[in-house]
């Protein structure tokens, strides 16, 4: 079982400066290296990094124990690139649907409003209640 964290510090600050200056891979690439998912340039850079970092060599050996279990899962990804984020795609589809629905509602409202006859509110206020003819006792109060 892996007890150490793969994101560890180097033994000295000098090694960290060399890694950054030489554009070498950071210690966080240990799992990707062990699983074989780094591109060729990253693979070479991390191999050079491993030569000078005992902690990464131990972590790579630890991760290597799990690689046979994890590799079949990685094969499910489409070849030639990363799998698109389904959550982001879903959010965009929902947002587009909302925009289309709002546009449709506004279009219908605008269409109906342009054909409607204007109503004079004062005629509505002066209109006699319909129940006055049916229930004359209610009017006398």
UniProtKB/TrEMBL annotation:
**Does Oxidoreductase show up as a keyword for this record?**
no
Skewed-composition ranges (Basic residues):
1-10
Q: Which UniProt keywords apply?
A: Membrane, Metal-binding, Transcription, Transcription regulation, Transmembrane, Transmembrane helix, Zinc, Zinc-finger
Q: What Gene3D superfamilies does UniProt report for this protein, alphabetically?
A: Anti-sigma factor, zinc-finger domain (1.10.10.1320)
GO MF assignments? zinc ion binding
Region entry Disordered, spans: 1-23
Compositional bias of kind Basic and acidic residues? 11-22
Q: Please give the superkingdom of this protein's source.
A: Bacteria
Domain (Putative zinc-finger): give its ranges.
Answer: 31-57
A Pfam family this protein belongs to?
Answer: zf-HC2
Query: Where are its TM segments located?
Result: 91-109
- The identity of this protein, by name, is Putative zinc-finger
